[in-house]
Amino acid sequence: MSAQSAATIQDAFLKHLRDNKLDVTMFLVNGIKLQGQIRQFDNFTILLVRGSGTQVVYKHAISSIHPAEPIERTDPASVG
């Protein structure tokens, strides 16, 4: 899998979570659990909002992102 297609999958996943305002749980590489909604993201960071609090999370620190509900995503490369 090329770096370009990996970025496309990541961007599509994050865009879906942001656009649908889904609650997510992020696990960081050091074991810390963060919860909230993704408000914005770029190549290096994700803006996570919960209540009145906002956190900037560096992508390199994230181990996994779990949406609160299952989502169906198609492979962006297969969509024509």
Automatic annotation (TrEMBL):
InterPro entries per record: Hfq (IPR005001), LSM_dom_sf (IPR010920), Sm (IPR047575)
* GO MF annotation: an example: RNA binding
Protein keywords: RNA-binding, Stress response
Origin superkingdom: Bacteria
Gene Ontology cellular component list: cytosol
Q: Which GO terms describe its biological process?
A: regulation of DNA-templated transcription; regulation of RNA stability; regulation of translation, ncRNA-mediated
Sm domain: which residues?
11-71
HAMAP family, alphabetically?
Answer: Hfq
Question: What does the record note on quaternary structure?
Answer: Homohexamer.
Sequence similarity: Belongs to the Hfq family.
Task performed by this protein: RNA chaperone that binds small regulatory RNA (sRNAs) and mRNAs to facilitate mRNA translational regulation in response to envelope stress, environmental stress and changes in metabolite concentrations. Also binds with high specificity to tRNAs.
What is the protein's name according to its record? RNA-binding protein Hfq
Source organism per entry reads Microvirga aerilata
Gene name of the encoded protein: hfq
